[in-house]
């Protein structure tokens, strides 16, 4: 879909309306809010936290068997976990 928006700089209300339209299109088609951060729901966040907890349990069980420090004890594992799933957030509206 292609759209052309004509802006009249002397019409402040028209500029505000054009901003609303552009923001709505960005949220709908790119999955981002006005400030450029991924949009996701509480349910998706809860599902993600549960998945993270399950992965941590698996790593803890493996660490107990080998008597090593769990690899999720620092921020690196959390960052890698989130980075691997960011595409899912971007698709949400």
Structural key phrases:
93 residues, mainly alpha, 2 domains, 4 helices, rod-shaped
Question: Strands, helices and their partners?
Answer:
Layout: H1 12-30, H2 42-66, H3 75-83, H4 86-90
Walk me through this protein's architecture.
- This protein is an all-alpha fold and 93 residues long.
- It has 2 domains: 1-37, no CATH class; 40-93, no CATH class.
- Helix content is 62%, strand content 0%.
- The protein has 4 helices and no strands.
- It is rod-shaped and about 70 Å long.
- The mean pLDDT is 80.
Number of DSSP strands? 0
The string of secondary-structure elements, in order, is HHHH
Structural class: mainly alpha
Number of helices: 4
Mean pLDDT score: 80
Question: What percent of the residues sit in helical stretches (DSSP H or I)?
Answer: 55-70%
Biggest β-sheet, characterized? none
Sheet-strand content, in percent, reads: under 5%
Assembly type of the shown chains?
single chain
How would you summarize this macromolecular structure in one to three sentences?
With 93 residues, the chain is mostly helical. The protein has helices at 12-30, 42-66, 75-83, 86-90.
């Amino acid at each position: 879909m292609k759209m052309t928006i004509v802006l009249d700089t002397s019409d402040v209300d028209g500029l505000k309306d054009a901003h609303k339209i552009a923001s709505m299109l960005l949220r709908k088609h790119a999955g981002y809010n006005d400030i450029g951060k991924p949009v996701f729901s509480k349910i998706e966040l809860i599902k993600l936290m549960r998945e993270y907890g399950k992965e941590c349990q698996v790593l803890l069980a493996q660490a107990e068997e080998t008597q090593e420090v769990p690899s999720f004890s620092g921020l690196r594992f959390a960052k890698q976990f989130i980075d691997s799933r960011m595409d899912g957030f971007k698709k949400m509206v």
